[in-house]
Design brief:
This protein is 34% helix and 22% strand. The protein has 810 residues and is of the alpha/beta class. Helix 1 runs parallel beside helix 9, helix 21 crosses helix 27 and helix 22 runs parallel beside helix 23.
């Protein structure tokens, strides 16, 4: 007879333990799992990605429904176990289901701590703990603007970043004087705060919340110092507490959590606890890596395999918020009996600190560059003695690395977790290498899921490969343009040219795509590459474009669209202004806004109204939605300005009329400044033109977005004709060599300014590039006019309920 194992909790810790058990003792157990949420096992670490819009629910599922079926596991979702009959060995749920057990694992997780403030029960006050919380925040962002996150720790900052992405104004309230004080030292925290403030977050530090304001729904938060902050949504991210109610009611010993020994056993026979609900040697862990380590020990115990028992964990934290990399591990605070090695580079935004006690590395903090994280974490866990060579830990011998990652991997035990997101141990990776022939990071990802989520463990996975196979045995696999192929951008484009492939289907078939339908990453890329190589032969595949480009308008968070007509160089006329105003009234546009690119944006337009509005405007599309030339910003230049040296408006209008509708690998913004005072901000644009006495400076590779980058000077020219020639050649060279979705700033840094200069140095080469871009431009049509004139395109904007059955089927 198979032993009956019941798992209470369908979360990451419990299911990881079951995964290990299935590998150690397949077909020996009858397994039943209860989960309170209506979902299969998902990666709670990536909830912030769902909130930020970078992932869907399906993207963060670890084990889908089929996994439970394939492993003959009975799964009850939406069931909360509310009773354990320890004498009859029976568990019961709130929905009346009772199941017997031989071995019971309690992995009930934790509950978010909600501050007991007056008004905490108002509508709009929530935690950030599960998918339902994400959905609540996403819905709130459609109606409300001001969000307050209470808690400046890891979870609070992830919630705040997600809310920023939902276009809410976000203030983070923290009782301490600096952020993430449980994971970072003051220096790293201040660097993090500065970066997040640049992204738009506001911080209210050293604030103690007193009460929540509002009637039925929250309207603000009052502090003990008498100050207040407005809020339509309050997210409490002030910590978690072990979920021990079930254990308490069942006679299981509890303290802060469910008390367990080194083998994760409770005080009652055949009942175990792991995860955030468990307390081991007085510690309840809230990070995923220790919980996976607990699960690995318990799986061996249940399978009858030899194990030394769980000894506790050294924890580490990794945070990536919109490009900000932070890592901390062990004891990072300075104390009288510790010394530290620090490296700080304010120009590159890098800070590193290693804390040493009695010759051993006991903690580390990294900001900006966390490539040393895995190596330092291994040193902390292994207690390596660095006496006499403390500085080499960060600085290395003569500027080199202190010690190779593979050497440090050798000292790791097989149970140590390499991939925290998916609970993959060193032993599991070694097994995949030795038993399944994995020889690359991609192989390991496919076999074990290590590095498949956040990707932060890739360097350590590579170190394990090197440790097992040696440097010569590791297969280096270049990243393909997506997971459907191992071919990179250049190989795909070369094949399109060499084999005269003109459709995406041809490319996928001839180049043997693993997914014959492609994916959301490669389909738009192929459509661009085909159109770039064969502008005359390739028919644009509208279904492969993103929603904004399919509908030729920017979709907003409430499902409406924005319409931005073209205003060349930011110049308009009284007649066009009147027309825009009248049409805004006709279609009841809720918001009319002047953009940063000197145009007028009509926001809140219904999809079915778009063709009618375009027809009434009778103006060309401003392409505010596409991977194309967006706008050419200008100052008044010599037309009116007393400092202007050239006609900036005229030059800007020429450039915009020349290159409008041009599709590029990513969006392109241009500007023309009439003098070096640079009022049009030309030196942070993809292509900037700055007037000087007797000529023009051409600047390239700028970016005014999240990753701010100033331009590099490409060259100086004397005439307007030369500006047009060089700009055309530059844009075509970018079109032909850039990766899809790669901004010019990233492209320039990848291939180098010298490469670009060499490609454009010869006038003959420039003329050849210009001739190719002009061929493409000659085929471009205004999409708004095309949709108005073509009935089959116009139909796609009719509401579904008004379409005939025949047209819907088509």
């Amino acid at each position: 007879m198979k032993k009956k194992i019941v798992l209470v909790g369908n979360g990451m810790a419990g299911v990881s333990c079951i995964e290990q058990l299935l590998k150690l003792a397949p077909n020996r157990f009858e397994i039943t799992i209860f989960g309170s949420e209506p979902h299969p096992n998902y990666n709670r670490i990536l909830l912030s990605s769902v909130l930020a819009g970078d992932a869907d629910m399906k993207d963060i599922v670890i084990n889908d429904w089929s996994w439970y079926e394939e492993n003959h596991i009975t799964l009850h979702t939406g069931h909360t176990v509310n009773k354990i009959d320890t004498e009859r060995k029976l568990v019961s749920t709130d929905k009346g289901v009772s199941v017997p057990y031989d071995e019971l694992i309690v992995a009930a997780g934790s509950l978010p701590f909600m501050l007991p403030l007056p008004g905490a029960d108002k509508e709009g006050v929530i935690a950030f703990r599960d998918i339902k919380d994400c959905e609540t925040m996403i819905e709130a962002a459609k109606k409300y603007k001001k969000a307050v996150v209470i808690g400046g720790g890891l979870l609070g900052l992830e919630a705040a970043r997600g809310l920023l992405n939902l276009n809410m104004e976000v203030s983070v309230v923290h009782i301490n004087e600096y952020l993430m004080n449980l994971q970072l030292d003051r220096t790293a925290s201040l660097l993090l705060q500065q970066e997040l403030e640049r992204q738009g977050m506001k911080f209210l530090l050293k604030k103690n919340s007193e009460s929540i304001l509002g009637k039925k729904r929250v309207s603000g938060l009052r502090f003990t110092d008498g100050t207040e902050v407005e809020a339509d949504l309050i997210v409490m991210a002030v910590g978690i507490r072990p979920n021990i109610a079930l254990a308490k009611n069942s006679g299981i010993e509890i303290n802060r959590g469910i008390v367990v020994n080194d083998f994760l056993e409770t005080n009652l026979p055949n009942i175990y606890a792991i995860g955030e609900c468990a307390e081991h040697r007085g510690v309840a862990y809230g990070l995923v890596a220790p919980l996976y380590e607990q699960g690995a020990v318990l799986a061996k115990r249940l399978a009858g395999a030899e194990t030394a028992g769980y000894q506790g964990s050294v924890v580490s934290t990794k945070l990536k918020v919109s490009g900000v990399d932070v890592f901390s591990a062990g004891e990072y605070a300075d104390k009288p009996d510790t010394r530290a090695v620090r490296v700080q580079d304010d120009f590159e935004g890098i800070y590193k600190k290693v804390v040493i006690r009695d010759g051993k590395v006991i903690g580390a903090v990294l900001f900006g560059d966390i490539s040393d994280g895995s190596r330092l974490f291994a040193m902390i866990r292994n207690g390596e003695d660095v006496t006499g060579k403390e500085k080499t830990v960060l600085l290395g011998e003569g500027g080199g690395k202190a010690k190779s990652g593979a050497d440090l991997v050798a000292a790791m035990s097989d149970d140590e977790i390499v991939c925290g997101c998916n609970g993959v141990s060193k032993g599991a990776i070694v097994g995949a290498i030795q038993e399944k022939g994995c020889s690359s990071v991609n192989d390991i990802k496919a076999c074990t899921k290590a590095s498949a989520s956040c990707g932060g463990c890739k360097p350590l996975v590579a170190d394990v490969l090197t440790y097992v196979l040696g440097a010569d045995g590791v297969k280096t696999v270049k990243e393909g343009i997506c997971g459907c192929t191992t071919l990179g951008r250049d190989e795909v484009v070369e094949a399109i040219r060499g084999m005269r492939l003109t459709t995406s289907k041809e490319v996928m078939n001839v180049l043997e795509w693993s997914n014959t339908e492609g994916c959301s990453k490669c389909r738009p890329a192929l459509n661009y590459y085909l159109g770039m190589v064969w502008p005359e032969e390739h028919e644009d595949e509208r279904e492969s474009r993103f929603v904004n480009e399919r509908n030729h308008a920017n979709i907003q968070k409430d499902g409406t669209y924005s319409v931005v007509p073209r205003m060349y160089g930011g110049v308009t006329t009284p007649k066009d202004l009147k027309k825009i105003a009248e049409i805004a009234e006709k279609y009841e546009v809720p918001l009319v806004k002047v953009t940063g690119g000197q145009r007028i944006d009509l926001l809140g337009v219904k999809k079915e109204d778009l063709p009618g509005m375009w027809a009434d405007l009778d103006m060309p599309s401003g392409y505010a939605y596409g991977k194309s030339l967006r706008t050419v910003k200008t100052c008044v230049g010599s037309t009116f300005c007393r400092f202007g040296t050239q006609d900036a408006i005229g030059m800007g209008i020429q450039l915009e009329k020349k290159f409008e509708r041009l599709y590029t690998p990513a969006k392109v913004k241009m500007a023309v400044s009439g003098c070096p005072r640079n009022c049009a901000e030309a030196t942070i644009k993809d292509f900037g033109v700055v007037a000087i006495d007797g000529g023009w400076e051409l600047h390239v590779g700028g970016n005014g977005g999240t990753k701010l980058r100033g331009t590099d000077l490409l060259c100086k020219v004397k005439t307007e004709e030369e500006v047009l020639e060089w700009s055309g050649a530059y844009l075509q060279y970018y079109r032909e060599t850039g990766k899809y979705n790669e901004r010019t700033s990233e492209w320039l840094e990848r291939i180098g300014l010298d490469t670009i200069k060499a490609a454009l140095e010869s006038k003959e080469d420039r003329i050849e590039l210009v001739s190719r871009i002009e061929k493409t431009l000659g085929l471009m049509k205004d999409p708004w006019k095309e949709i108005i004139e073509k009935q089959e395109l116009n139909k796609t904007f009719v509401p579904m309920e008004e379409q005939s059955a025949e047209s819907i089927l088509k």
